[in-house]
Amino acid sequence: MTSLFQRWRRRHWQPDPETLARLGGSAPATVITGASKGLGRALADAFAGDGNRLVLVARNVGPLEQAALEIAARGAAAPLVVAVDVADPDAMAHIRSALDAQGLYLDVLVNCAGIGQAGLLAEADPTRIEALLALNVAALTRLTRAALPDMLLRGRGGVLNIASLGGLLPGPGQATYYASKAYVVSLTEAIAEECRGQGVRIAVAAPGPIDTRFHDRMGAGGAFYRYGGLCMRPERVAWWIRLGYRLGATVILPGVGPFLLWPFARFVPHAITAPLMKILLLPRGNKGAGDAK
Fold it and tell me: What is the pTM of this model?
């Protein structure tokens, strides 16, 4: 059954033996950005048993090394650690250099690094807005663009982008964050269609609120949605995301809550959803700047 599924996913792929022979790396790697904490850290645990060598990417080497030790202690192969800011235009060059040194090639890219921002746009720090766009939009696009050509030549691999259920809605009180995730959803669905039948799996996860410190760091700790019982544990969200990715879903809705809210987010007019989201999202006396997941 797996073989039939794989052949179907590669139904339009035309191998080029000469080009394939020139591709570097002998063993596949799963690269996870934002892997030092929060959902990225949970995704590292979830993907640790899939057979690929894990490569953990984030800015700070200390938490990455701790994560690698914990994963290796559970019997998985020791992950490779790459400390780099993925918003750096040369980030992929650093990642590829680390892979080449270990005889690895980029097989699966999980774009999880991101930051949030809460508060009114008119009062937001312009520098923080630029940082959010640089990471959530530009860096994700740049890494995806860099990874895809070799994947398409091999006829295997995949890109998993982490967005948000909020990417389907206007987000008064978190306007730039919600807009950045709308970009990620739209980009990923378009790329998935472009790559269909070429053997490369393209997916986007749209989780609801996750029980991490992400909301407090972005200044949304006092928002109403934090107290509605909707937050899921990152480990559970990661489990659902991995399952959806393995099943070949293009849009992955982790958990029952996001699945039930999906039609509401997709089809209810924004004239109705925007005022509701304003009530849920605007922090009460807490203007946030944002920090990484």
Answer: 0.89
